[in-house]
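Why do we care about 3D structure at all? Because function follows from shape, and shape follows, mostly, from sequence. That is the central idea of this module. The next example makes it concrete: a single protein chain, its amino acid sequence, and then its structure expressed as tokens.
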Amino acid sequence: MFQEIPLARMRLWVLTVGPLATNCYIAACPETREAVIIDPGWDPEQILMVVRAADLKVRYVVNTHAHWDHIGANREVVSATGAPLALHPADLPLLQARGGADWWAIPIPPSPPPDLELQDGDVLKVGTLRFQVLFTPGHTPGHISLYEPEAGVVFDGDVLFAQGIGRTDLPGGDYETLMRSIREKLLDLPDETRVYPGHGSWTTVGQERMGNPFLI
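And the structure:
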């Protein structure tokens, strides 16, 4: 299933995909129809249906991190759109291991290698949108978030959730690193910034600063 969320400076679709109900986001410039696909974890047909229906030109496919439920549709989506795949290099070993899918015998195709290695401070231009790369490790070694300041949104994968935080008990996870990422990167954003996580509903930085039990 999917929904389009009305925002002042961005067209945004949220698709709930795969067995872990992962949020895949398609964020587009309303003026140019250029778009970025964030975390195509499953259901490539559904993702590509939205792209075709909205007549979008996909500039990038971005993995916030390389767990299997966030990369499962990489191959089909990259192949169909011709867009470069972007990932932080510290998560490349996880991507090459199919996101840990073999730990649970999950059948996903291998991802193509990334075309673009993301680093903290990089900016991805998508039409009039400017996505700033925030290095937010802790859930995985190479986890990143994408912040668009004019639209006031951040896509943070599995770092900060509404009333929760990402798990750190999987290989490569580290609780102290995760909490540092949250406090130094995400909580440094304006309170009104909308946080679009990898699972569950959106929240705001201010709501989590005041009410998230892991941050009090």
